[in-house]
Amino acid sequence: MKTLHTLALFALSMFAAASASAAGTHAVSHGAHADHDATGKPGVAAKVTRTVKVDMTDSMRFSPASIDVRQNETVRFVVTNSGQLKHELVLGSEKDLKAHYEAMKKNPEMEHAEPNMVTLAAGKTGEVVWQFTQAGKVDFGCLQPGHYDMGMKGSVNVAKAAGK
Questions:
Q1: Is 119 exposed, middle or buried (0-12, 13-18, 19+ CB in 10 A)?
Q2: How many domains does the chain have?
Q3: CATH number at residue 49
Q4: Is the peptide bond before 145 cis (omega within 30 degrees of 0)?
Q5: Per-residue DSSP letters for 127-162?
Q6: Domain range enclosing 74
Q7: Which of 40, 49, 72, 75 is the most exposed place for a label (fewest CB within 10 A)?
Q8: What is the pLDDT of residues 96-140, one digit of tens each?
Q9: Considering the domain boundaries, does residue 87 fall inside one?
């Protein structure tokens, strides 16, 4: 019984250490996630007002690279990777995207999933549902190593809501 108790405590402590380590790595690796106050917040699918299709290609471009929305609009981005390389679309401030990109260059195999992004293998389609709560510009980019530097970025222009 003592051995079983010791093994259980050991397993529990290893689980706790692994969880803390994973959480620490995630926080350190990403450093700065999208500033949701400035860029908006995860949207509710039932409140989507329109769908915008975005294509990602191996020419390191998004199509379209500029998207116009209105403040408080909830948009479903249907994102397709028509290339042969892995690509992603990450919404955020330019500062946050650059910080995240630097982390990705140091850890190219880092896997992550946040509501402001979608990472896709070649030929796959995914989506991001986002509500743009503030007027201004929200950037997006592919943070796979080398892609952002080659110009794989774009912007969402958020027009002030009527009467604001």
A1: buried
A2: 1
A3: 2.60.40.420
A4: no
A5: EEEEE--SSEEEEEE--STTTTTTT-EEEEEEEPPT
A6: 31-159
A7: 49
A8: 998 877 877 777 666 667 899 999 999 999 999 999 999 999 999
A9: yes
